[in-house]
Amino acid sequence: MTLDASGVPWSWAEWWQWDATETAALAQVPWSEVSSDIASRFLTRLSQIPALDQIVRSHSSYDRLEPLLREYLSGLGQPAGPDNHLERLREVGLRHVRLGLSPDLFQAAYWFLVQGTLDVLGVYDPMVHRAVLKRMAWDLVALSASQTSYFTFQDSLTEIPNRLATELQLNAYLRQRHPFALVLADLNEFKTINDTLGHGVGDQVLRAVAQRWAKALRRTDWVGRWGGDEFLLILAGVHSVQDLPALLRKFRSVVEPPIEVEGLTVQVTATLGVARYPHDGEAISELLRQADRALYRAKNAERGWMTAEGLKSAAEEPEDWVEILREALQKGRIQAFFQPIVDLRDGKVRGFEALMRYIDDVGQVHLPGEFLPRVNHPELLRVLDAVVLRQALEALSGWRRQGWQGFVSVNVASQEVTDPAWLSEVSHIRAAYPELPPSALHFEVLETAPLADFETVARMTSRIAEAGYRLSLDDFGTGYSSLAHVHRLPIHAVKIDQSFLRDWQTPQGRAVIQAIVGMSHPLGVEVVAEGVEEAGQREALKAWGCDAAQGWLFSPPLPRAEADAYLHR
Hints:
Elements: E1 2-3, E2 9-10, H1 12-15, H2 20-27, H3 31-47, H4 50-59, H5 62-74, H6 86-98, H7 103-120, H8 126-153, H9 163-176, E3 180-187, H10 190-197, H11 199-216, E4 222-227, E5 230-236, H12 244-253, E6 259-261, E7 264-266, E8 270-277, H13 284-300, E9 305-307, H14 308-315, H15 321-330, E10 334-343, E11 349-359, E12 365-366, H16 368-371, H17 378-401, E13 407-412, H18 414-417, H19 420-430, E14 441-445, H20 454-466, E15 470-476, H21 483-488, E16 493-496, H22 498-501, H23 507-520, E17 526-529, H24 535-543, E18 548-549, H25 560-567
Parallel strand pairs: 8-9, 11-13, 13-14, 14-15, 15-16, 16-17, 17-18
Antiparallel strand pairs: 1-2, 3-5, 3-8, 4-5, 6-7, 10-11, 10-18, 11-12
Helix pairs in contact: 2-8, 3-5, 3-7, 6-8, 7-8, 10-11, 17-19
């Protein structure tokens, strides 16, 4: 037995118990009246301590903090206990974490609050002092525990679980022995954001992406920050690879809408590597290794995602791409994706470039560079181009009916341009859409080397122009493209190759882009920049007189339904 400062006897055993006498002592205080006085004194004390004052001013304000403080003080009349108090204390503790208070600073500030409360209550009975001190000490223990838990298991930047918590959760999933998918997610070109816009902007982008993923999760799923710009998602109940495409498309799509940061618009995309338990491994280390390999391969192949199972099949190159693509045509797995071409003057969508994609049986999206170079079959290539052209015209017809007056462009190899039968086939396909003017269909010549047969190209492109179609030179500035082509061919636009955009901040890169713009405009030729990924690139291109641009800053290539939504957002 010992005595407190007021002479009231107490023991340590009594300190951790609560009885009716203490409840009655707390009830004597008109908390709603005295809380205003306590809050005022406490906030004045905070303002006199530079470290705490700076945190309040940088994360909140005294005007916003006072009502929260008064709300807490008004609740001190209730006895402490798990039934009515601990969850509320946890929320208070986390609220202070989000204000930037470390546990040490929080405890120091809280003891100032205790001191201020006891000073204001000086006129009350010593039993009231003891009850209040005991009550607030209990709160401090609970609050500190919630903060310790937060800093141990939560990532303070993104406010989602950290790596330690995620590893523990993985172990819990393994103990349950139910199938799940482990997904490593990495943000594309995130280093560029940090390097060009600053780490402060990068941090806010990470926070926005993390919160978007957290909101998109099912109740049975998990997302944690794995490190840097890498996240780990755990998707429960994935029994087969066919369960994955819809989920993975969802998680990729939720991060792609623009993020507003400090007056800037930033857009990011994610690449995903997937491993399934128990199919791809029964240990965490093996699952992580498989997912990491799949992520690496997906990035190199410029795919949205890859599974460990897809990685194994990718290691075995298909024996016959011709048969694979023929089957894909029969199943409707050759699809046109649409990338917006944006006017740099007003930000409106001028057109879409239609790009061929092959979607395999497990939902993986394959780019043309992966399979077209392996297909030496002119007739099949012509069928593939015709399918993309029909889908492009069908999409354009729908958009025109909705009032949009833009265009679609499709890629065409220069050997096709020089084939008279190709133009006849184009006219035959377009005849199914009589409402579409020929000028709404643009052709982009991809292969530059055959332009060395200049006379044939000039003759056929003149026929294309006479039919009303428009022609662009793609990858301009590389290969055999030259001022002579722009001057002598009926070219409507040139598209600056994205390799020049990578050097846009160097004197040489800037000079090349400005030279292309400077020589094209006097000839009545528009200039479109490809591969625009940064807001700084967009603003520089606009200042240098570039007419339009496309790239992941605006949008990746989109399936038809998502292109509809983008156009009418």
